[in-house]
Amino acid sequence: MQIETMAMAGTLESSDVQVTVEPGTAGIELHLESSVMNQYGRAIQKTVLDTLKRLGVSSARVQVVDQGALDCTIRARVECAVFRSAGISDKNIPWGGVVQ
Predict the structure, then answer these.
(1) What pLDDT score does 22 carry?
(2) For 3, 15, 28, 93, which has the most beta carbons within 10 A of its beta carbon?
(3) What DSSP letter does each residue of the chain carry, written as one string?
(4) In sequence order, which residues have a C-beta less than 8 Å from that of residue 56 and are 6 or more positions away?
(5) How far apart are CA 24 and CA 99, in angstroms?
(6) pTM of the prediction?
(7) Per-residue pLDDT tens digits for 22-81
């Protein structure tokens, strides 16, 4: 999936995560801030990168500001930001397990 424009998903509320994606030049450039960085930083990074890979994103700048979100929330916010950036409308989002 191609990142076409800047897009954001999520909030800065407790137990949520704000994900911003924008077009990149080469590869994935990930900037991560987290209130639980010492405990879960590597796991959050892995979740973000795995989700991007699963969606077929190979080039993007991604900023993640985590406030203690669960993995399922992180995945959902990354997917939402990528879908918004790619211009996929809510009628065409492959919900229901189509996205592996």
Answers:
(1) 96
(2) 3
(3) ----S-EEE--SSTT-EEEEEE--SSSEEEEEEETTHHHHHHHHHHHHHHHHHHTT--SEEEEEEESS--HHHHHHHHHHHHHHHTT--TTT--TTTT--
(4) 1
(5) 22
(6) 0.89
(7) 999 889 999 999 999 999 999 999 999 999 999 999 999 999 999 999 999 999 999 999
